[in-house]
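[Q] Does anyone have a clean structure-token version of this?
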Amino acid sequence: MKYSEFEKRITERLGFGVENEKSYIDVIKSNYLVGRVSKEYRYNFTIRTAGSSLTDDKARYLAQMCHELACTTLETREEEKKYRLRFSGFSNNPAVYISKGNLTGILQLQELGHPLSIYEFTKKEIESFPDKVREHAHTCEWEEVE
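[A] Here you go.
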């Protein structure tokens, strides 16, 4: 399970806050820490239900989600970084990017903002580009997407 999926499930189903700290991901209910999963060690999590007025169903769901995240390998919990590849030297417009047509799958150069184009790629996706495009991708400015 990814950290983002954990946060989405906890906030949507339980309505609790999730704080992504350096060493832990914390679950907060009304300023009270009710769950904590280690970001440094696998299989390490804590549930604190005493004094939190959690129902049995919510406590079970919280424990299930924390257990599932804690059992996920540390490497696979993080989202893979995505990049926009800004291509310079091709046109007078300095903001031309490698994009992929959503419907056609064709790689092309264009400005940001076309609704039927994808501009963000993982390193794995970039490495799978055809040879000529991949060569150009490595000369582009790689803008990390948050």
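[Q] Thanks! Anything notable?
[A] The longest strand covers residues 32-38.
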